[in-house]
Each structure stands twice: as C-alpha cells, then as structure tokens.
Amino acid sequence: MQHENELLNERDATHGDIRMNSAMYDELSTVFWKYASPRMLAQKARFSFVLDMIFTKLVRLCTGDPMFEDHWVDLSGYSSLGKTMVTQP
Question: What's the number of domains the chain is made of?
C-alpha cells in the first residue's frame, strides 16, 4: 500500500490531479466534438481512440509537469499513429 501511495503522489506531481484531469478531459472532448466538421464526425469511430489519448496527454501537460518528457513523447507518438491511420487506411 505504501508503494501505491508513493506512486500516486509521484503521478500527481507529473500528471496532475486526477479529478481536475477528468473534468478538463470531459470539457476538451465535448468542445472538440461539438465543433468538429462533418468530415471529422464521419470519421469519429476511426479516430476517437487516438484523439482520446491526445486529449489525455494535453490535459496532463496542462495540469501536471510540462517538463516531464514522457508527456511530449506520448503526444508525438499518438499524433504519429493518427497520421498512420490517414496514410495507411
């Protein structure tokens, strides 16, 4: 249990508070899909997982430690996966 608490405290410092992250993710996702173009909406099922992960990484950058390199690496990786989904249908 102590190890779990240490890990959660470490994650709070780098990833931000889970409650704040959840609220911000919900708002970001809602606004994105509210204003998405018809072409994007037609591809929602195709891109939703990758976009969900990108939203998660953006939220962690905002509420956590922007100097935590993994956030940037993950964001780049999920963006690359999205590109692959376009170039290799």
Answer: 1
What pTM, to 2 d.p., does this model score?
Answer: 0.88
Range of the domain at 16: 2-87
Closest CA relative to residue 62, chosen from 5, 29, 24, 23: 24
Over residues 11-38, the mean pLDDT reads: 95
- 21 contact partners, CB below 8 Å, separation of at least 6: 15, 56, 59, 60, 63
